[in-house]
Design goal:
single chain, 175 residues, mainly alpha, two-stranded antiparallel ribbon, 7 helices
Length: 175
């Protein structure tokens, strides 16, 4: 799932592609109907799956089967999980194959340690390993001790259309 930018607000902070099927023009100032639609989508994913061979979504019956995991069978646990997912930030809907591959790459990049790219104790120093301009930019809010946060990695891979090397460069320059 791609998260919408800060300039866009659709109630659940997801991209327009994923939000499209959830859209309704009915008056819903508290977002209760939207939450019910999101919950219904989770229930469908967990009970019947998406049927896509590339799916690796932990919150989809097909994705769990593709990963060799046992799908949730108990309706009570499925319902409880759907309600829990509606209460957390971000959503995990099944996506197209390209988005799924980018997500997997983003998770890989996010898990990498920040070595060899000028990362020093929460800051990125421009130039080679602190040489060059020598000006530090504080990036603690965007990068943790082990690497970039997942959201930044997903964004970098979207901007660079799935090119891993260019995405790493984008993260160094903008992340």
């Amino acid at each position: 799932v791609r998260e919408s930018g800060s300039g866009t607000f659709n109630g659940v902070r997801i991209c327009g592609t994923c939000f499209g099927p959830l859209y309704s023009n009915t008056y819903d100032p508290e977002g209760k109907a939207l939450v019910r639609r999101v919950e219904r989508r989770y229930l469908t994913q967990m009970m019947t799956g998406c049927g896509k061979g590339w799916c690796r979504n932990d919150f989809c019956k097909t994705g769990r089967l593709n990963k060799g995991q046992e799908p949730m069978k108990d309706m009570k646990s499925i319902n409880a999980e759907a309600k829990r997912l509606c209460s957390v930030s971000g959503v995990r809907f099944c996506t197209d194959e390209t988005s799924q591959r980018r997500r997997e790459l983003a998770e890989m990049v996010a898990a990498e340690k920040g070595e060899g790219d000028g990362f020093v104790g929460g800051s990125i120093i421009e130039g080679e390993k602190g040489k060059g301009k020598g000006r530090e930019k504080d990036r603690e809010d965007k990068r943790d001790l082990w690497g970039y946060e997942l959201g930044w990695c997903v964004n970098a891979l979207e901007v660079e259309k799935g090119d891993l090397l260019r995405a790493r460069g984008w993260l160094r320059d903008w992340g």
